[in-house]
Amino acid sequence: QVQLVESGGGLVQAGGSLRLSCAASGSIFDINNMDWYRQVPGKQRTLVAGITSSNSTTYANSVKGRFTISRDNAKNTVYLQMNILKPEDTAVYYCHADWVRGRVRVQYWGKGTLVTVSS
After folding, report:
1. β partners of residue 57
2. DSSP for residue 84
3. What is the rounded CA–CA span in Å between residue 52 and residue 72?
4. Using 50, 70 and 90 to split pLDDT, how confident is the model at 28?
5. What is the DSSP string of 5-34?
6. For 54-108, what is each residue's pLDDT tens digit?
């Protein structure tokens, strides 16, 4: 079992910054990739940024150059630094972990943190 707890969401004006954190606990040794997704009402959850266990990163085109994902293995925490925020970044942001042990693969999700960007 893995528990993921997000924090850092809130209300910010356009052009501002926020840093989201995702603290992982439990059986974290077998976590491979960790990602941030976001979802707005009525739409699918979409990938924002991902980071592998070897620190390779990937970003959605819409956030490239503005968002940075990083992980601190000592703290079992993944961060999403969001700069130059836009109203269209408003969403609930979810932390996701891809857990693999042998043939068993489990997807874990946090409960989400709301980011609201005002124009």
Report:
1. 51
2. S
3. 12
4. confident
5. EEE--EEEETT--EEEEEEEEESGGGEEEE
6. 999 999 999 999 999 999 988 999 999 999 999 999 999 999 999 988 899 999 9
Query: Which candidate, 90, 63, 68, places its Cα nearest to that of 79?
Result: 68
The residue whose two tokens read 């925020």 is: 85
User: How many Cβ atoms from other residues are within 10 Å of residue 77's Cβ?
Assistant: 17
* The CA-based dihedral angle spanning residues 58, 68, 3, 105, taken in that order and rounded to the nearest 10 degrees: 10
DSSP state of 101: E
Q: Residue 1: helix, strand or coil by DSSP?
A: coil
Task: Choose among 108, 78, 111: nearest CA to 2.
Answer: 108
If you ran DSSP here, which 8-state letter would residue 85 be given?
-
Name the token pair of 71: 């992980």
Closest CA to 78 of 99, 57, 95: 95
